[in-house]
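[09:14] KT: can someone run the structure on this one? pasting the chain below
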Amino acid sequence: MKIKNILSVLATAFAFSAVAYAEEAAPANPSNDVAVEKKLDYIEQNGLKFLHVSTLSTVEANQEFVRNVQVISQLRQTLIKLNEHRKMAFTEEERKATDDKIKELTEELNKGDQTMAKSYGYSLSRDYIHVPVVTYVYLKLTEDEYTKMKEAEKELKVGEDFLVKGDDKFRRVSVISNEQGNLEFRTNVQKMQAMRNHLRQAAEALKKMPEGEEKQKAEAQFSENEKKFLEANEQMVKVYGYSIARDYLMEIAVSKLYTKVTEEEFLRAEAQKELEDETLTSEPAK
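[09:31] RB: done, structure tokens below
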């Protein structure tokens, strides 16, 4: 049985790394690569409707959006903690200092929330789904791989064909270019991770089993699962250039933001869309 072989694969570090986002005191002004949705576009999940409110159309715009959401979310969490702290304040001086800080951060949060609403159709008071549409998948290269790549392919462009992040180098291996493809890719990655975790647990359990018929059955099942895992990994390499044994970085280049709406809000938006369509149809051609 090839337990050692599979364990070497399972032990290899694996990570889908998001770009690091530095903390900021307030949300940055969004770039121009954000389109607020003008037509009715929605998705349904578990009986709930989500309206499309904006599209982020570059890597930078998507990174900026995530960073801004993190900033205002952190502000809200800080305010929650400050309000809890105020309840336990022992002196009037301590309460006043806390009140002043709460007032300052509340104003900052309200300003940030207004900016997010204007720029993205986003508000902390609502629920959202952030849907990737186009994703770039980059393979982390060893220094030897990077050197050979540069020598063999002179026309490669930084930011397109490969990325350099500090000491790390990444080669673009695939572009996933639609919503369904992104959903399938992420689902498949999760399945691979689940299979890997199951095999890890099974391998550990086999070590503790006494010799005998039951262990032989368990070993046979392990071998079968190992085979399926490796076949699935080969298919992922073929389709996406992705292997569970390597490290990757994903950058979302285009995404859509949807907000959850009530049935009344949805019907109102639908009626407004129909009215706009009728208006456009009735306008004489210029």
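[09:33] KT: thanks! Helices lie at 3-10, 59-87, 92-120, 143-152, 179-208, 213-240, 263-282.
[09:34] RB: yep, looked fine to me
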